[in-house]
Design goal:
With 258 residues, the protein is an alpha/beta fold. The chain has 10 helices and 9 strands. Helix content is 35%, strand content 21%. It is globular.
Length: 258
């Protein structure tokens, strides 16, 4: 926050440790500290956040990119690289666009269609697509879940709201848009709906990667069993069940990772 208030790199704070602060600079910094003390996320205060080694514009209109979501992106990139052919990917509920952009950045054989239900979020995603120079490979559309998507996809990715109303959350999480956090049916409604709706939009052998909370794993697995040929759960760095991967059918030349 101090680097942001002074318009410096963080490294410059060490290189210029004895640099005095002017009155306006001190006022700007104190204002940031006061807002942070009230629980406002640092990403909102400085206007950006790193994710998968890339920098993203962030505003209060979108969820702050979370390191846990990197598990999903890493698996998507792995699948794209294994395929070694052009793939069509859907990113449902894109927010900042971090999933769509990171996949497209690290997997050059991928074209992504990314959706969000709010135009405010799509404007943030548009800015990030432009910053990363991916306007020719990341398309943005507005709509609810799979509703706006046309055609079939090799991979459907999603970080949808999955928190139950009333769950205890840190102040910096609660400060983020409620529509991006909470879902009905104890947090499972949107993820399970995605699992029900996405098979009709998948190519043969297509897959879904959806982020989840450990509390909704059993409900999500039930939906996967209803709609897919198989599934597995990926854990985050803390060991928590974080991403479900489900496939419509098993390609004859490729078994899913165990």
């Amino acid at each position: 926050m101090l680097a942001h208030a002074l318009g410096l790199r963080r490294l410059d704070l060490y290189l210029k440790f004895d640099r005095p602060l002017s009155g306006p600079e001190l006022t700007r910094y104190r204002d940031l500290v006061a807002k942070r003390a009230k629980g406002e996320p640092v990403a909102y205060l400085v206007g950006h956040k790193e994710f998968m080694g890339l920098d993203f514009v962030v505003t209060p209109a979108v969820l702050v990119p979370n390191p846990d979501t990197e598990v999903l992106v890493q698996r998507a990139v792995e699948l794209a690289r294994e395929a070694a052919r052009p793939l069509r990917v859907a990113d449902v509920g894109t927010g900042t666009g971090c999933i769509a952009i990171a996949i497209a950045h690290y997997a050059p054989n991928v074209d992504v269609v990314a959706s969000d239900i709010t135009t405010e979020a799509l404007e943030v995603a548009r800015r990030n697509v432009e910053v990363h120079g991916l306007g020719d490979r990341v398309q943005l559309i507005c709509g609810d879940l799979m509703g706006p998507f046309v055609g079939s996809f090799d991979l459907v990715c999603a970080n949808l709201p999955y928190v139950a109303e009333g769950s205890p959350l840190a102040p910096e999480v609660v400060a983020q848009p409620a529509r991006a956090l909470y879902a009905d049916v104890n947090g499972s409604a949107l993820v399970t709906r995605l699992m029900d709706d996405s098979p009709a939009h998948l190519s043969a052998g297509g897959r879904v990667l959806a982020e989840l909370d450990p509390s909704i794993v059993s409900m999500t697995v039930d939906a996967a069993i209803r709609n897919f040929a198989g599934h597995r759960i990926h854990r985050d760095l803390a060991g928590h069940e974080r991403v479900i991967e489900a496939w419509s059918s098993i390609p004859t030349n490729s078994e899913p990772s165990a």
